[in-house]
């Protein structure tokens, strides 16, 4: 099981200039190789007049698919450096296209590698990159006397509260990382003298984006 991994949550774009050549890095989150190819084709249409549209992408939590292209630049000077940035930063499920408009001055092999590397890095800086964590959805049912104790535990352990339902009893739904699960169970049993236990009702990935917790319910947690 992949307990956590880095991914692009929101697309970004940045431009750098090297000796009058423009390098425009476009970064896009993807879930499949088909999405990557479609995005690359769209960028080629958008920048049809560019000298080169080089790309790199990785697909899968284990980087099962890795592809790159120099698109006419000297071999190994564009796509591979871009791919190296993605792998080096440990970012998954992402495609980067660097569009070049030639400025009239040759950069040489080393200059091209630096330019495509730096463009990719700057493009990623303009994207929103998150750490997706695998978690368990758990439910705790308590009477009103136990609410304060459970709220204290979740606050101390910095556990995400998904929902609190008040009827004649109180149902608290939480999102817990796998390494928190056992400790939370112990804390709840101790605080409620064994009256409350955790009920697991699903697994998912989630991430914190600024002050908000985003839940990726469509993404399965593989055992």
From TrEMBL:
GO biological process: regulation of translational initiation
Cellular component GO terms held in the UniProt record: cytoplasm
Family recorded in the similarity comment: Belongs to the IMPACT family.
Full protein name: Uncharacterized protein, YigZ family
Domain of life where this protein originates: Bacteria
One Pfam family from the record: DUF1949
Transmembrane segments: none
PROSITE patterns: UPF0029
Domain called Impact N-terminal: residue spans: 19-122
PANTHER family from the UniProt entry: IMPACT FAMILY MEMBER YIGZ, IMPACT-RELATED
């Amino acid at each position: 099981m992949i307990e956590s991994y880095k991914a692009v949550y929101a697309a970004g774009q940045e431009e750098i200039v090297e000796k009058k050549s423009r390098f425009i890095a476009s970064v896009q989150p993807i879930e499949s190789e088909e999405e990557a190819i479609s995005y690359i084709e769209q960028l080629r249409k958008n920048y049809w007049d560019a000298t080169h549209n080089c790309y790199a992408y990785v697909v899968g939590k284990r980087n099962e698919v890795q592809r790159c292209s120099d698109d006419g630049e000297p071999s190994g000077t564009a796509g591979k450096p871009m791919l190296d940035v993605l792998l080096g930063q440990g970012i998954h499920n992402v495609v980067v296209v660097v569009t070049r408009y030639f400025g009239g001055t040759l950069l040489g092999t080393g200059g091209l590698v630096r330019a495509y590397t730096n463009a990719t890095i700057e493009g990623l800086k303009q994207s929103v990159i998150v750490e997706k964590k695998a978690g368990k959805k758990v439910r705790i049912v308590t009477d009103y006397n136990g609410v304060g104790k459970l709220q204290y535990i979740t606050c101390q352990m910095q556990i995400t509260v998904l929902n609190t339902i008040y009827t004649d009893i109180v149902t608290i739904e939480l999102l817990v990382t796998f390494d928190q699960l056992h400790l939370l169970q112990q804390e709840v049993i101790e605080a409620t003298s064994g009256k409350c236990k955790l009920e697991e009702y699903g697994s998912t990935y989630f991430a914190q984006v600024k002050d908000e917790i985003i839940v990726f319910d469509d993404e399965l947690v593989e055992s």
